[in-house]
Amino acid sequence: MSQPKAWLAAARLRTLPLSVSGIIVGASLGNPILNQVGFALLDEKFGGIVCGRYSHIYERPLFWLAILTTIGFQVLSNFANDYGDGVKGTDANREGEKRMVASGMISPKQMKKAMYITAGITLLIASMLIFMAFGNQHFLWAFIFFNLAIAAVIAAIKYTVGKGAYGYSGKGDIFVFLFFGLLSVLGSYFLFTKTLTWDLLLPATSIGLFSTAVLNLNNMRDIENDAKVGKNTLVVKMGSAKAKKYHYFLLIVGMLCAVAYTLLHYQMPRQFVYLIAFIPFVLNMITVAKNKEPRLLDSELKKVALSTFAFAILFGIFIYTRL
Questions:
Q1: Dist CA 170 CA 152 (whole Å)
Q2: Which of the four, 19, 72, 206, 322, has the lowest number of CB atoms within 10 Å?
């Protein structure tokens, strides 16, 4: 394998759609308020030009900076995971796609350097995002969000790196739920609106639980190897049978939260189009129930990750039909 391909493999591009799902949902929920409030005020001043040109979320630099920031955190996490598991010997006999440090394609020193560079670039983009969102008028919020960005960098690295790596003590699920779900959805919503409401916890919980389900699948696939090397994931702690029930819980409650939020706010049938994305979730639960060989779950990770991304896209697009 060539070096460019090795670095692409280490970046694990297949994880990126899942990482941006929360941003898509949060920004989509926040943008209609901007259309009705912020853009309405600007429209008066500029004679209809602003709404006509810039009201759609996917044309706004703020949205794309948020996407780039999230991708940066995800790639950093993937590099750190490759490095941490590689130097600890965890990946020596793992199932699924090959890891670059463990295979010798990338040296630990090279990967560590890549982590520093990725962290620096991501924090730079995050700073641009925060300044664009808050400017000089909301220093306190800018300070809070910058510290959240620092926390995201630390969380991305500490998952598998160091003696206190939380991924080795069964706490990975909590961090994935918090950062992929609550922080991603609520944070991106707040960047657009500067407000929050309690009902937003429902879609944030959906994305958080779906993302945790992907991690749970990963850990179910690796249960035998993780148990051997002392990586005490939640799956290793609870065992395969309970891990399957936990998996059903994550997906079912995630789907119910999305439906509950929609019922609270919308009535039109087309606003439930995202239910199509839940079909693969149901099929995945059937596959997990029948599974007896953990390594065969590898292909299921992509199914759940892409279904979460599809849900975010469909939910985000049809959210505009309420206007």
A1: 18
A2: 322
